[in-house]
TrEMBL record:
GO terms for molecular function: peptide transmembrane transporter activity. Transmembrane segments: none annotated. CDD domains: PBP2_NikA_DppA_OppA_like. One of its GO terms (biological process) is peptide transport. This is Extracellular solute-binding protein, family 5 Middle. Residues 16-281 form the Solute-binding protein family domain. It comes from the Bacteria.
Amino acid sequence: MTLTAPFAQLPVTRGQRVLLPLPEAYSADPEAFGRRPVGNGPFRAEADHVPGQGITLRRYDDYAGPRPAAVEAIEYRVYLDEDTAYTELLSGDLDVLPGASPDVVARAERDVAGRVVDTPTAGLTYLALPLYDARWADPRVRRGLSMAIDRAAITETVLAGTRRPADSLIAPGLLGHRDGACGYCVLDVDRANALLDRAGFDRSRPVELWFNAGSGNEAWVEAVRNQLRANLGVDYVLHGALAPAEYLGLIAEQGMTGPFRHGWAPDTPSPRSALEPLFSTLALPPAGANASSYSDPAFDALLARADAAPTEEEALAAYAMAEDVVLADMPVIPLFVDVTQTIHSADVEDVVVEAFGGVDAAALREAG
């Protein structure tokens, strides 16, 4: 692979699924490869995959990588409903139930206490501010809104632990995450009101708060609305009737009139995946996902410096400075990071869930 310019994040970028290596067998017979795929990891398929019936992987003893499999085989099963899978876990017929729903997790915390693994993943939910609207041009207004939101209360009650409060633009599990990077993500009602006062924000005019329909957002958006109303004395009008396609179209057309729900899930563990697509000038609509239409030459320069850094340490330091530029301006209000909840039996240990929600099969071990 030959690059046209230095790029420090190439090693992690090559971990994208679209860049995973394919053997010659794929080109020779794609259908056969689909039935019995060949990868480059510590397991191999024991038999052809039958759609709807799962697949069994067996440890590949000739694997030359740094992390060989700790168990002899793993059977991946397909269940038509989660209740059946949970019943089998309780009976000892299933060892790991990934991505469990809140209802099943609540039962598991009673039935198998201590065997629920909560893992923050890469997904971030935030409110974007339409910087093309003069009402949101002052960063003090954006900071004040952020500091009037009690993220912990919403994640604990409305979201039942399925999210965690965001304190950074770079989610836990990604390279470069820093706990508490977002100082304006801390609840401080007095400071929030002082910021709005200094900015001369018109509190008599209702704020329009936007979210897309059909994605389970209404309850937490209403909670945010109620907190902002109580803490800042500003009335809010909710707009939640647009279908996803219409909603995204309105964002692309710069038609938002107030804070609007948005989310992002990086495709690599690099901090660049959390920053560049959302905040760089090159990512402004309609070309990219910079929904707030944010642009800052200092951020762009730091991003370029990080990309070309000769070492990972220097790259991460530059990405951190780039994140700090955005967090000072607050073009978006980070709210929650996604959490995946995995239940396991007493027969296994070292249940490790990666930043993108998958169970690390190589780390899994038999208990005892």
